[in-house]
Amino acid sequence: MDNEMVIRFKSVSQNEGFARVVVGAFAAQINPTLEELSDIKMAVSEAVTNSIIHGYGNAPGGVVEIRARLSGKDLYLEISDEGKGIADIAKAREPFYTSCPEMDRSGMGFTVMETFMDTMEVQSGLGQGTTVRMTKRVAAEQSLDAQC
Could you say which of 67, 69, 93, 105 is catalytic? Predict the structure, then answer.
């Protein structure tokens, strides 16, 4: 199955749930397990939340874009914003690091994305925004005969 989609939405926290559902429905085309689907949705949630909170500082004037592509059993995701960017990507990827400690953030967003997806890379520049690219390979389908 080869397919692709692009969605753009305002940087408001209510759209995080929307993004999870849309990407989950799109990924369903390659028949992921419930665990794989949950992993994908969790990673999307973290990336979108990072864009809204850290990229745009919770200001509703920004735009988050998700590009998703299916190729065979692989899901490719690109989640980007045009927010303030990340000064030190290596530091931001450290577990428990947060640029917003006053907001009681856990600092586990990138760690969660890396844990639940097969690959994850971050590209960012100050004043230029951030792009997170992730991939997930869905396990091969089991035949019904193997389950009986």
Answer: 105
50 is catalytic: yes
Higher pLDDT, residue 31 or 1? 31
- Which residue in the list 15, 16, 20, 46 is annotated as catalytic? 46
Global pTM value:
0.84
Provide mean pLDDT across the span 81-102. 71
Active site residue 31: no
**Residue pointed to by tokens 């530091």:** 91
The alpha helices in 8-137, defined as continuous H runs, are 15-27, 34-50, 89-92, 109-116
CATH (residue range 2-139): 3.30.565.10
- Average pLDDT over every residue of 98-104: 55
For the chain, percent of residues with pLDDT exceeding 70: 80
The answer to whether residue 8 is catalytic is no
**Helix H or strand E segment including 136:** strand 129-137
